[in-house]
Amino acid sequence: MRHDTYIYIIIMAAVTYLVRMLPLVVFRKPMTSRFFKSFLYYVPYVSLSVMTFPEILRCTGSPLLGVLALVLSMVLSLVGMSLPLTAGISCTAVFLANLL
Predict the structure, then answer these.
(1) Cβ of 69: how many Cβ atoms within 10 Å?
(2) d(Cα 34, Cα 68) in Å, to the nearest integer?
(3) What is the DSSP track for 19-55?
(4) What's the pLDDT tens digit per position in 4-31?
(5) Contact, 41 vs 19, CB < 8 A?
(6) What Rg do the C-alpha atoms of the chain give, in angstroms?
(7) Domains of the chain by residue range
(8) How far is CA 73 from CA 15, 62, 92, 98, in A?
(9) What is the pLDDT of residue 18?
(10) Left (φ > 0), alpha (ψ -120 to 50) or beta: where does 61 sit?
């Protein structure tokens, strides 16, 4: 594993922790803004996606295989498959396509 992967994990953990911790420390009254609540809810997912997406495209050495994995996993998740099954099928498809 490359060292930048560890840096990504540390940044993701820090962002997730700060977003969850700051409202408890800074705001004493309950938050009433629906926009602010939804913003704080989605920040960890967005930060994880921003760090994961580039790695999907370059992890196989061929961007085309990365796009294949991305499209396949999106279709499988939209159909309603579970996360472990989606990940397993996508990894298997990329592995088999890489053998060709």
Answers:
(1) 22
(2) 37
(3) HHHHHHHH--SPP--HHHHHHHHHHHHHHHHHHHHHH
(4) 888 888 998 898 888 788 777 877 777 7
(5) no
(6) 18
(7) 1-58, 60-100
(8) 26, 17, 11, 16
(9) 85
(10) left
